[in-house]
Design a protein that fits this description.
The complex is a heterodimer of chains A (339) and B (326).
Chain A (H helix, E strand, L loop, with lengths): L4 E12 L2 E13 L4 E5 L6 H8 L9 E8 L2 E2 L5 H7 L4 E4 L3 H4 L6 H10 L6 H14 L5 H4 L9 H13 L5 E5 L7 H18 L2 E6 L2 H7 L2 E6 L2 E7 H6 L4 H8 L53 E4 L2 E3 L5 H12 L4
Parallel strand pairs in A: 3-8, 3-9, 6-7, 7-8
Antiparallel strand pairs in A: 1-2, 1-4, 4-5, 9-10, 10-12, 11-12
Chain B lengths: L3 E10 L2 E2 L5 E2 L3 E11 L4 E5 L6 H8 L7 E6 L2 E2 L5 H7 L3 E4 L13 H12 L7 H11 L16 H13 L5 E5 L7 H18 L2 E6 L2 H7 L2 E6 L2 E7 H6 L4 H9 L39 H5 L5 E4 L2 E3 L11
Parallel strand pairs in B: 5-10, 5-11, 8-9, 9-10
Antiparallel strand pairs in B: 1-4, 1-6, 2-3, 6-7, 11-12, 12-14, 13-14
Helix pairs in contact in B: 3-4, 3-5, 4-5, 5-6
Classes of the chains: A alpha/beta (339), B alpha/beta (326).
Chain lengths: 339, 326
């Protein structure tokens, strides 16, 4: 039985005058219904480009896509625009980071959600409107009968994001991609939105891809974690394993550079040196090597050979030249005491 | 004598109704009775959700905004209504690092000129000349001094924030207000800038007012923390007191909402319902009562006064109680 969503060796390359930008370079992962995959990375790591590629939103741009995106066995990259459009919004939907620019300022929330229904289904406007009202109530918007006729600018940030979620869920999609859905929100609102997404997942059984830079959010909501760096997956594991036995120096760096609310210690943070790489001019070999604090432990030249994504533990892959046993030792002795 | 003492500071913004004749409406009470003090070399964290008045408080303390009422004392001098020459001199001691590393640097000026601006404005000639001083500052904040002639767009977000820090510390001020200095940066870069701010503080015995919405960052950097809601102080304490023994329901709700990088940890979560009320028309009594899970009748009738429940731990709540939420 093949998984619900299977992404195989996905590549998204943008040819530019200065060279090819390899925004996503060979990404493979699976996602089952009712599960959540957290994709983590810094800006420019390729996480948003991945989500746009799955949704087929790179069409018409200069992007060159290769690989496979199989949704229920159907390769999305091979579909015609027409076929894809009938899937988008119905079987898969997306929540964007900034609902103010993702929604049309000229139409009311109600008009935009009704349209989302009518694009896919032949329903009378009145029936669609009832459905919209019901959905707005379900995502926790008070007074939906009044709110439905308001414009996006009349909503607060949290309410707008709820409306966005309502729009994404209106046709019961099986796959939901959320691209930094809570980054612009206050923590208390973020907690409400994450709870809402979890409840709705329980109710609808959708598969969720949660794209974020916040490891706390991932720990809270994801079943699997995929860490991206320079367009490649560098660590892919179940959430417990990823946080209790992180296996890549980059993941360690992310963890040690985060101040923690649940720790009394006020030790100096251990940041990752340098800056994220430019995708147009990625360092040779392992893209992380110029910033890696542990490259001396690698048996081969990190700046020449690209490491493969290999299984270190059951269901826990990572991409690093340092031997697994040595990495486990480094984590236990150097990193874990600093967390 | 404290470095900075603020007493009952208020900042109201007038509003106008848009009827035929412009008439004044109820003011927006952005900061409504803020009192704090700060010692040299100390960091005071100011946390709260957007719209709680923390940025307005920071700007009013620096006299970027004229206070409506209250008193600001710097090194014992009353500077509440300082203006003109007096204010300009004061600015040598008081500086600011802004949130947006893009909007706060003039794109038409090379970095060298941006960092040299404080010297020029204050008419100060540093030892060895302005250029040498600027290059030393660039080196100090971790920038390549040879990039003196580059423009802001040639730098990454983290590097730009370093430029902002260099500019703020150029005149060796005593107090720097940092308004969300790291919230626009990637996690790994965030840590670099936090470490830089801490190092500079130690070297120069700087005091920071550190404004942020991220409670984890504030916990890391602050000696004392003040929690604000709708222009009012809810709770203030030293770092350990606030995070280990939070007593105000709002502080507890904020903390319980922060996701922690540890999967499947069961924490009690205090969920707040609804949105922030309008600061133009704040609730009667305790401003937090409309969203407080423990609110009772008394909360609507009486404004809770800040009470010192433990040494240095001030809470403005009728029903304070320690709850472990982390």
């Amino acid at each position: 039985m093949s998984p619900f969503l299977h992404v195989n060796d996905l590549k998204v390359h943008f040819p530019t005058d200065d060279g090819v930008v390899k925004a996503v370079d060979g990404l493979t992962f699976d996602l089952e219904k009712g599960k959540t995959l957290g994709i983590v990375g810094e800006s420019g790591s390729g996480k948003s480009v991945t989500s746009l590629a799955i949704m087929g939103l790179h069409r018409g741009s200069r992007a060159r896509l290769s690989g496979e995106v199989l949704l229920d066995g159907q390769d999305l990259l091979k579909l015609s625009d027409e076929e894809l459009r009938s899937l988008r919004g119905r079987r898969m939907a997306m929540i964007f980071q900034d609902p103010l620019s993702a929604m049309h300022p000229y139409y009311t929330i109600g008009q935009q959600l009704v349209e989302a229904i009518q694009v896919h289904e032949k329903v009378a406007k009145k029936a669609a409107r009832t459905k919209v009202m019901d959905m707005l109530g379900r995502v926790g918007i008070p007074n939906p009968n009044k709110r439905i006729d308001q414009y996006p600018h009349e909503f607060s940030g949290g309410m707008r994001q709820r409306a966005m979620i309502a729009m994404a869920l209106i046709n019961d999609p099986e796959l939901l991609i959320a691209d930094e859905p809570t980054t612009a929100l206050d923590v208390t609102v973020q907690a409400q939105i994450l709870d809402l997404m979890r409840d709705l997942q329980d109710e609808f059984g959708s598969a969720i891809i949660m794209i974020t830079h916040d490891l706390g959010v991932v720990a809270e909501i994801a079943d699997d974690v995929l860490v991206m760096y320079g367009g490649k997956c560098i660590e892919y594991a179940e959430v417990d394993s990823a946080f209790h036995q992180p296996d890549h120096p980059y993941t360690w760096g992310l963890l040690t550079s985060m101040p923690r609310l649940d720790r009394l210690k006020q030790d100096r943070l251990l940041p990752i040196a340098g800056n994220p790489p430019s995708l147009i001019n990625l360092p040779p070999g392992c893209a992380f090597h110029p910033r890696c604090a542990f490259r001396e432990f690698a048996p081969c030249a990190c700046d020449e050979v690209v490491p493969d994504l290999l299984e270190s533990y059951p269901k826990h892959d990572s991409r690093c030249h340092i031997p697994v046993a040595k990495r486990a030792e480094l984590f236990a002795n150097v990193i874990a005491p600093r967390l | 004598m404290s470095l900075l003492t603020v007493t009952d500071l208020k900042k109201y913004f007038p509003t106008y109704t848009t009827k035929l004749f412009r008439s004044e409406g109820a003011p927006v009470k952005a900061v409504d009775g803020l009192s704090l003090s700060l010692e040299a070399g100390e960091t005071l964290g100011l946390v709260g959700e957007s719209g709680c008045g923390k940025s307005t408080a920071g700007r009013t303390i620096l006299k970027l905004l004229e206070p409506t009422s209250g008193k600001i004392e710097f090194e014992g001098r009353d500077v509440t209504h300082a203006k003109g020459e007096e204010l300009r001199k004061l600015r040598r001691e008081l500086q600011m690092v802004f949130q947006d590393p893009y909007g706060s640097l003039n794109p038409r000026h090379p970095v060298g000129a941006i960092i040299a601006a404080p010297f020029e404005i204050q008419g100060v000639t540093p030892e060895g000349g302005v250029k040498k001083a600027v290059q030393e500052l660039m080196e100090r904040v971790g920038l390549n001094p040879e990039h003196y002639n580059r423009y802001p767009h040639e730098f990454s977000g983290g590097q730009r924030q370093r430029i902002g820090v260099a500019r703020a510390i150029a005149l060796k001020p005593k107090l720097v207000v940092c308004d969300e200095p790291v919230s626009a940066l990637d996690v790994s870069i965030q840590a670099q800038v936090i470490n830089l701010l801490e190092d500079i503080q130690k070297e120069q015995n700087l005091a920071y007012v550190f404004i942020a919405h991220d409670l984890s960052v504030v916990r890391h950097i602050s000696d004392r923390v003040m929690v604000m809601y709708l222009g009012h102080t809810m709770e203030m304490s030293d770092r350990i007191g606030l995070y280990e023994r939070p007593m105000h329901p709002y502080t507890q709700a904020l903390m319980s909402a922060v996701p922690v990088p540890e999967p499947r940890r069961d924490r009690e979560r205090i969920l707040l319902t609804g949105d922030l009320p309008s600061p133009q028309n704040p609730p009667s009594g305790c401003v937090f009562r409309t969203r407080c899970p423990y609110a009772q009748e008394r909360c609507a009738a009486e404004i809770p006064l800040p009470i010192e429940l433990e040494p240095g731990h001030i809470v403005a709540c009728h029903f304070p109680a320690i709850r472990n939420v982390i």
